[in-house]
Specification:
Elements: E1 10-14, H1 19-32, E2 35-42, H2 50-58, E3 66-70, H3 72-85, H4 102-116, E4 120-122, H5 131-142, E5 147-149, H6 151-154, H7 160-169, E6 185-188, E7 193-196, E8 226-233, E9 236-240, E10 243-244, H8 247-260, E11 265-271, E12 277-283, H9 285-301, H10 304-323, H11 329-341, E13 347-354, E14 357-364, H12 372-375, H13 388-411
Parallel strand pairs: 1-2, 1-4, 2-3, 4-5
Antiparallel strand pairs: 6-7, 7-12, 8-9, 8-13, 9-10, 11-12, 13-14
């Protein structure tokens, strides 16, 4: 590409330490002639992050310009848990594991850019996916005048071969398994692992076993079910089997249980925000358990009207997160409504885990709206007069009877 028209002095790069972002790092240095600051987020992806520091040093980054932050607790507490209060699922299935991580990364990049006096930020998302939208909407919402560099939309490295040649030319270390095409691409954090591309691109073909990394095959899970109990306070899970845990610790524990029982696999063809359909395989073991538990405690603590309203707005809320509008006022408005609904969502849920499934088998709460005296088939206190139902039904049937009479007149 030609020399950029705008002078960039310092840029904060979202850096994983992998081959692609290492190529981007060197490309920024050679194309923009700028100083690069790297930011690596520990979101619970399960990888050792110190190699990212070593790789950045090798590529000429100053030690004081290498930022590696453990964001696991903040990620679960301030992003995952608020989302789960809404029971958010995109297109009825996807628990938004990749989507919910992007606003936190964007926020931290902007904070670092302010700290080091950078005039640009950079991400490694391609020009075909949703992540470019999520990152950049986050950047602009927090720093309206920031310059955003998106290499995949700018450079001429349009093939894997070209990227490898660039790496070799600039002496970027290349792992042996990176020289060929990867069979699929992955993204991971404490909430989930997603896999897409290559071997997964044909939606007719079943996902191969080797793609799964967070869950065992449900067929190989124990033959005996496991019962667990999760405690909630104001809509957030706070303990498992009576043991209090921090948000990240609790999700990590549920992930381990979900792994052992093959829970949380999802094979999905979804509608990307940029306009195309894509097929992905998602593993969200702890999140799948948590969603079932949260809906279980809500079932006895939320009023019917509040519960149904939450279900109505949930698809819109989930779509906002999927499309990258976490920092938009409409998401914050819905969040306030959702959080208000969680005032009495406190209590305990018992779940049964068995061969790929997690379902609620018990629930209790000091704020329960469930009244056994009202619903029992046995004689009890006169809390409900069944004769009242007759008038209720006639009032609700009034318009239907009126319509039926008109139809009879018209038909003759």
């Amino acid at each position: 590409m030609s020399k950029p028209s705008k002078q960039i002095n310092r840029v904060v790069l979202a850096y994983s330490g992998g081959l692609d972002t290492s190529i981007i790092l060197k490309w920024l240095q050679t194309t923009y002639g700028c100083e690069v600051v790297t930011f690596t987020a520990d979101l619970g992806q399960g990888e050792e992050l110190e190699p990212a520091r070593e790789k950045a040093l090798l590529l000429g980054i100053k030690p004081e310009h290498i930022f590696i932050e453990d964001l696991r607790e903040e990620f679960v507490r301030d992003y995952v848990f608020p989302m789960f209060r809404a029971n958010a699922q995109y297109e009825g299935d996807y628990l938004l594991g990749t989507s919910i991580a992007r606003p936190l990364i964007s926020k931290k990049q902007i904070e670092i850019a302010r700290r080091v006096g950078a005039d640009a930020v950079c991400h490694g998302a391609t020009g075909k996916g949703n992540d470019q939208v999520r990152f950049e909407l986050g950047y602009y919402a927090l720093e309206p005048e920031i310059t955003v560099i998106a290499p995949w939309r700018e450079w001429e490295l349009t093939s894997r071969t070209a990227c490898i040649e660039f790496a070799e030319k600039h002496q970027i270390p290349i792992a042996r398994d990176k020289r060929g095409e990867a069979p699929f691409s992955t993204d991971a954090n404490l909430l989930h692992t997603s896999s897409e591309g290559k071997v997964l691109e044909d939606p007719w073909n079943e996902t191969p076993d080797y793609v799964y990394s967070r869950t065992i095959n449900p067929e190989d899970a124990p033959d005996k079910p496991l019962y667990i109990e999760i405690d909630f306070e104001n809509g957030d899970a706070v303990a498992v089997d009576g043991v209090k845990m921090s948000p990240a610790t609790l999700l990590t524990h549920l992930n381990a249980l979900g792994h052992d029982y093959g829970i949380g696999r999802l094979d999905l063809v979804e509608n990307r925000y940029v306009g195309m359909k894509s097929r992905g395989m998602y593993e969200t073991p702890g999140g799948t358990i948590l969603l079932a538990a949260h809906r279980g405690i809500e079932s006895i603590t939320l009023d019917r009207g509040a519960s149904h309203l939450k279900d109505e707005i949930m698809p819109r809320y989930a779509e906002m997160i999927y499309n990258g509008f976490w920092f938009a006022p409409e998401r914050e408005m819905l969040q306030a409504l959702i959080d208000k609904s969680q005032q009495f969502v406190t209590g305990r849920v018992r779940l049964k885990l068995y061969k790929g499934s997690a379902w609620v088998v018990g629930r209790m709460s000091p704020f329960s709206l469930y009244d056994q005296d009202l619903v029992t088939f046995e004689d009890g206190p006169v809390a409900y007069d069944q004769r009242d139902a007759g008038g209720f039904i006639k009032l609700n049937a009034l318009r239907l009877r009126t319509l039926a009479k008109r139809a009879r007149r018209i038909s003759g």
